[in-house]
Amino acid sequence: MKISRHRLLKEDGTAYPFVASPNLGGALDARYLVIHFTAGRNAVSSVKWLSNRRAKASAHLVIGRDGAITQLVPFNRIAWHAGRSSWDGLDGLNRYSLGIELDNPGQLVRSGDRWRAWFGVEYDAAEVIEAVHKNGSQLSGWLTYSLVQLEAALDVASLLMEKYQLQDVIGHDDISPGRKLDPGPAFPMREFRARLQGRAEDEDLRFQTRTHLNIRSGPATHYDLLNGSPLPPNTTVVVLNEYGSWRFVDVEDVVNGVMDMQGWVHSNYLRRAE
Ligand SMILES: [Zn+2]
């Protein structure tokens, strides 16, 4: 992908879908990239809402769970995604940041063995992590972002960082703490930032198991063991999130016949990967 005249284009020069939002301001002084979740039903409904004048909100991009990217506001104009916010001595981050909305239902509540969004749709527990928001105190459910969605976000974020010489990527929950929960615990911010800033920091997030290590659905011993638990000694994992002494990890290899395992392990049994 590339950027021309503040529009996102594919390599062959064709534009990504552009749905003009009327909810925009003047010239943008872009310094940061802010990541959000839509708290919506799907990307189509979120694009529709954010391009409706009544929403009084917008973002530069919306990324679906299938990785599809839609642009709503040119990158040189102010989008209305941050609201009341402050960061590093600046107030009102709309004027200083590009905003990416990731399609995701947001905070979920337990409903039997499933998890329910505020708009009533229920999600399978296998797609949900249980975690405490970094600004909160209670465990709740968060739908994991899909891999293609995260990869699309990483590709476009790295392009935007370079093109507009942005200083950092931050969450809406960083700039509006107490008021906003997005992108929340399911978004691997540490790894995302590390991958944007180069490989050196990525190495810091890579660990190996010191012994056979149970991997669970939540950050305590009463949570269910995942299929494929325990991890064998010397399994390489990448830490995506943390809660007390527990780490939410992505398992690198196929382990015990299970691919793409993500779950919680106790940090006492991890050591830095060589
Ligand atoms: Zn937000």
How would you describe this protein?
By secondary structure, this protein is an alpha+beta fold. Helices cover 16% and strands 31% of the residues. The model has no long low-confidence stretch (mean pLDDT 93). It has helices spanning 43-50, 147-163, 172-175, 189-197, 199-204, and strands at residues 2-4, 7-9, 24-27, 32-37, 61-63, 69-71, 77-79, 86-87, 90-91, 97-102, 107-111, 114-116, 122-124, 128-132, 139-143, 168-171, 206-209, 236-243, 246-251, 262-266, 270-272. The two termini are 34 Å apart. It is globular and about 55 Å long. Bound molecules: zinc ion. The site of zinc ion (ZN) has 4 residues, from loops.
**Overall pLDDT level:** 93
Distance between the termini: 34 Å
Instruction: Determine the CATH superfamily of the largest domain.
Output: Peptidoglycan recognition protein-like
Beta strand %: 25-35%
List bound small molecules: zinc ion
Number of strands: 21
Residues in helices, as a percent range: 10-25%
**Tally the helices: what do you get?**
5
Helices and strands, in N-to-C order?
Answer: EEEEHEEEEEEEEEEEHEHHHEEEEE
CATH architecture of the largest domain: 3-Layer(aba) Sandwich
List the helices and strands and how they pair.
Layout: E1 2-4, E2 7-9, E3 24-27, E4 32-37, H1 43-50, E5 61-63, E6 69-71, E7 77-79, E8 86-87, E9 90-91, E10 97-102, E11 107-111, E12 114-116, E13 122-124, E14 128-132, E15 139-143, H2 147-163, E16 168-171, H3 172-175, H4 189-197, H5 199-204, E17 206-209, E18 236-243, E19 246-251, E20 262-266, E21 270-272
Parallel strand pairs: 4-10, 4-16, 5-10
Antiparallel strand pairs: 1-2, 3-7, 5-6, 8-9, 11-12, 11-15, 12-13, 14-15, 17-18, 17-21, 18-19, 19-20
The structure holds zinc ion (ZN).
